[in-house]
Design brief:
16 strands, 8-stranded mixed β-sheet, about 400 residues, single chain, elongated, binds histidyl-adenosine monophosphate, alpha+beta
């Protein structure tokens, strides 16, 4: 027997309804902010991510699903920001549209050790706004993320923000952390000792408890920020305050991808446990240029859908499936009449189904109940003789006979 690949999931129909609810809510929220959907391919050149996320990023080092094709090296996309920037440049959107707001929903792939909340195929709902340095855009993007969570509905999450500053500031931050950690090097994990030499910032992102303990003692504030970046960050905070968005400034917050500059944020939920990030994002003001495009400021975020599902308060509220009408036809003649009846209902966009497994009336009623049917139609010999259908309202239990010509109106 074949088994699914570790770290992947079969999303079965019952759960798909919840996914559709989250997707629909997200689409509605994105359109409130004038974001348009984009669907880049799932495979990209691997080098796109090496370049964008950085050679020392954990994703690049350990987690890429690589596909060799003759001389080419492709990969299943581990995230979508780099793909979207590539698409922005390749399709000349910088020239035709300039500033653009895009959103996406789809699978991402990372070859991780599977555990709760950490999959090898997971899904992002994310957005990218490309072509502006305006701090008002940072505020709008964070408020969009906040609004999206509230609409799902999810509460008890924490928005943590920080500013890494521009490239020069990031270098300065690296130096500050390097100095602060020099004496503590032997206490850091093996990975962090390598990070200390290659990319000290990443130590702040280490999940190892001993390293986290040390990081918590570091006195990092905003000394690395140049006046421009300090002013930008202060505008962002002011904007968030004016919208009454709850957030916390976390000077230890860095992100594991090289492209981030300036504002970064993470949204955490304690119910998630060790993998507590529901979503994350930030500015990546150098990436468009780095990939061959113009000098364009940009910001975005992505939520992990599987993690959203773990913490939605009442996921059943997400169900968007149309109310079902369930037909029970009893006897051969009723069955063939029943098929025509179903066809008519479907042409009128009424969702309906029937029994194909030879159930008795009682068993079919039970089945209708299990399927959550709103109405049951009964068509037996008695009904055929009188040219009526029996309609049962499953919520009130009320039952009445109806002429076929009045049925559609009644159901609607
Ligand atoms: P990221 O932090 O790597 O950011 O991923 C965003 C979210 O995806 C995480 O907060 C988490 O909820 C979910 N996630 C990540 N890895 C896994 C996994 N293995 N299993 C389940 N869920 C996972 C990015 O990918 C950036 N592209 C976000 C962004 C957009 N920044 C700017 N624009």
């Amino acid at each position: 027997m074949f088994k699914r690949v570790p770290g992947t999931k079969d999303i079965l129909p019952e759960e798909v309804i919840l996914w559709q609810g989250i997707e629909e809510t997200s689409r509605n929220i994105f359109s409130l902010y004038n974001y348009k959907e984009v669907r880049p391919p799932l495979i990209e050149e691997a080098a796109l991510f090496n370049r964008s996320l950085g050679e020392s990023a954990e994703i690049v080092q350990k987690q890429m699903f690589l596909i060799k094709n003759k001389k080419d090296l492709y990969c299943l996309r581990p995230e979508a920001t780099a793909s979207i920037v590539r698409a922005y440049i390749e399709n000349n959107l910088d020239k035709t549209l300039g500033f653009i707001k895009l959103y996406y929903i789809g699978p991402m792939f990372r070859l991780e050790r599977p555990q709760k909340g950490r999959l090898r195929q997971f899904h992002h709902i994310g957005c990218e706004a490309i072509g502006s340095h305006d701090p008002g855009l940072d505020v709008e993007v964070i408020s969009l993320a906040d609004n999206l969570l509230k609409s799902l509905p999810i509460d008890d999450y924490k928005i943590k923000i920080n500013s890494l500053g521009c490239t020069k500031d990031k270098k300065e931050l690296n130096v500050i952390i390097h100095k602060a950690l020099k004496d503590k090097l032997p206490k850091l994990c093996a990975d962090c000792r390598v990070r200390f030499k290659k990319n000290t910032l990443r130590i702040l992102d280490c999940k190892n408890e001993a390293c986290r303990e040390i990081v918590r003692t570091l006195d990092i504030r905003d000394a690395h920020l140049c006046p421009g970046c300090k002013a930008h960050f202060s505008e962002v905070k002011k904007g968030l305050d004016s919208l009454k968005i709850n957030y916390e400034v976390m000077p230890h917050l860095v992100r594991g991808l090289d492209y981030y500059t300036g504002t970064v944020f993470e949204i955490a939920h304690e119910k998630l446990g060790a993998q507590d990030a529901l979503g994350a994002g930030g500015r990546y003001n150098n990436l468009v240029k780095e990939l061959g495009g113009p000098d364009a400021g940009a910001i975005g975020f992505a939520f992990g859908v599987e993690r959203l599902l773990l913490v939605t308060k009442s996921p059943t509220q997400q169900a968007t499936g149309q109310k079902l009408t369930y037909l029970i036809s009893l006897g051969e003649k009723a069955k063939s009449e029943g098929l025509k009846l179903l066809d008519n209902l479907r042409k009128e966009r009424i969702a309906c189904d029937t029994d194909y497994e030879g159930r008795s009336l009682k068993a079919a009623m039970r089945r209708a109940n299990d399927l959550g049917a709103r109405f049951v139609l009964i068509l037996g010999e008695n009904e055929l003789n009188k040219n009526v259908v029996t309609l049962k309202d499953m919520s009130s239990g009320e039952q009445k006979e109806i002429k076929p010509e009045n049925l559609i109106q009644e159901l609607k």
